[in-house]
Design a protein that fits this description.
- The structure is a single chain.
- The chain has no helices and 17 strands.
- About 30% of the residues are buried.
């Protein structure tokens, strides 16, 4: 959804219809980085600034709110212009399904064993994690541990894995794979990682 924030104090409501119970990611991107906006999410009824299920706590123009599990039904989003001195465009996006947010560490030396922590939502036992390069070559994690619904660890043997950038692809036992593009880099063998 695209829209315009016309000034400070403006509230806009949006409804997201969830057809299947899944994690839900809501992202607001304000075109003016100096604006201060707020995002609130509530399941089943519209939120207010005082009554909500999820929000983004940090001040700023752009926000990402993750709902660990949104059941089928309506989910409501409030976008509030806390400090918007002049009109500003924005986009609001909601994605349902497994969510990937970050990978740490994001680089490691070739020839080593690397344990990556993947953060997001919707991780369940049986999830597969792979590194993909631009040619489509795949390297599968030796072991995957589900630490929590929003965090997993994947251990890769980087012996024989060429240097370069890789997408991190996570595939649930049933469902669609999701990827973080260029999220991991294999460095030359023996290069230090801080």
């Amino acid at each position: 959804q695209s829209g315009t924030l016309i000034g400070t104090g403006q509230s806009q409501y949006f409804r997201v219809d969830v057809t299947q119970g899944n994690p839900l990611a809501v992202q607001l991107n304000d075109t003016t980085n100096s604006d201060r906006t707020e995002v609130y999410v509530r399941l089943g009824s519209p939120p207010t600034r005082a009554e909500f299920d999820y929000s983004y706590a940090q001040p700023g123009a752009d926000h990402a709110v993750t709902v660990p599990f949104a059941p089928p039904g309506s989910c409501y989003v409030l976008v509030y212009a806390a400090d918007v001195p002049t009109p500003s465009g924005f986009t609001l996006r909601a994605d349902s399904g497994q969510i990937l947010e970050s990978v740490t560490p994001n680089q490691y030396a070739a020839g080593q064993t690397a344990t990556l922590t993947v953060r997001g939502a919707g991780f369940v036992p049986g999830t597969r994690v792979e590194l993909w390069d631009l040619s489509g070559t795949t390297f599968t994690a030796q072991a995957v541990g589900i630490d929590a619904f929003d965090r997993l660890t994947a251990t890769f043997d980087l012996t024989g894995v060429p240097e370069g950038d890789y997408d991190v692809r996570v595939t649930p036992p049933r469902g669609t794979p999701v990827s973080l593009l260029g999220a991991f880099t294999v460095l030359p063998s023996g290069q230090g990682v801080l």
